[in-house]
Amino acid sequence: MLQELASDGRNLDNEMIAMLYNTVASKLGWNTILAGTVANWKLRNMDVQYVGRHGVVAHRNNKAMQVKRRAPRFPLYYWTVDGWDVELLYQQREEREKNGKKYSVVTYSNRPTVVMLLDPCTRYPVGYAIGTHETPELIREAFRNAFKHVKELFGHYYKPWQLQTDNYGKKTLLSFYEACTRVYTPARVKNAKAKVVEPYFKKVNSKYCHLLPNWSGYGVTSRKENQPNDEWLNQNRHKFPGWDGVVGQVEGIIRVLRSESIEKYRQAWGKMAVEDRLEMSDEEYLVLFGETTGYGNSLEGGGVGSTILGEKVWYDSFDPSFRNWGLERGGGDRESRYPRQAGRGNPAVHARAETRAAHGVERTGTRGFRRVAEGSRLQRPEREDDQGEACPLGRGCPGIVRGTGRTERYAGETCSL
Questions:
Q1: For residue 317, how many other CB atoms are within 10 A of its CB?
Q2: 134: closest CA among 163, 161, 90, 165?
Q3: Are 124 and 153 in contact (CB under 8 A)?
Q4: Taking residues 146-172, what's their average pLDDT?
Q5: Strand ranges (E), 156-240
Q6: How far, CA to CA in Å, does 202 sit from each of 105, 211, 224, 306, 380?
Q7: In this predicted structure, what is the pLDDT of residue 415?
Q8: How far is it, in rounded angstroms, from Cα 162 to Cα 78?
Q9: Res 331 pLDDT > 60
Q10: pTM of the model
Q11: Which residues contact 328 (CB under 8 A, 6 or more apart)?
Q12: CB under 8 Å to 67, separation ≥6 — which residues?
């Protein structure tokens, strides 16, 4: 009985437990106890009572055996992802309506959200995206930024060996996560220690955000004396930056964070075994992050017509069997994917990632266009500015011409002439 009372989820104090116990003990002829006896009993049986008093999650995090980990020695072995409501306030004008009348209000309690991909190798922020709130689209934008930054650093797109995220939007993003890595490991629900990015956010908040005049403070569970003065914040709220200003602040912090560890990150990459690098092809990148025009591409008598950046480009082949691909899965329209140019216009999805012009690598349905071209050559698109490239066999073939009107590489196909 004493064990049951001490394990009660209401966390009864020693006096209450002694009173309840003595009420039953007096009727059953047992000896009564004091509050001190209850305290000693709790100390001797703490492990048994902990789950009832504090819950299974608290027991798992504080009493059960913990998994010991260390940071990987090389980049792209492990990435961790999480969203962060940055402790920086910004002002925003909102349009509202009441009793049929429209009016505008300026709010000062807004905070931007950052989705960040962190490589614990050197605690390098490999990718990020800034928005007004966390969404699956913002997460995809952060991954796009990460893979483009990896290409800027190392010359090619590379995948991480292991990826760990929380469970936000897992049903929507599960296949996307699995395609971005070799091993996808979601963190256990309510296990903050699984993601090393969370203490990283705390450090960034304390070291960098704290110095800015629109700093909102620490979490709600922090001590009051460590928080900013509410009166001071109210007096200076008109000096808070707008959306573009707070985005600039966050970007500036991330630039500093990257500059602090980029050299160590590159040196670690140079020491990494070449066979351990998981390269991602351009086609894979476009399948994951490519944008569509909204128009389908059907196989017609003139070949496959695709509109790229507002210009109609035609693809065709000298191989007669090429026409058979139009009957696959009942024919119909297929989509082309092209790189997306990120901009600052939409505050819901924002990432500072420069993109190159669309290079015309096509994807038709679930099959790559290069597979169609095996054993043949694609005809040169009908463009006046197309310079092409000479046939590698010296026979005047146009070669494989992609949507930009130039030959990027020959994939070993036999000459058609």
A1: 19
A2: 165
A3: no
A4: 94
A5: 157-159, 162-164, 183-184
A6: 32, 14, 17, 48, 55
A7: 38
A8: 5
A9: no
A10: 0.70
A11: 365, 367
A12: none
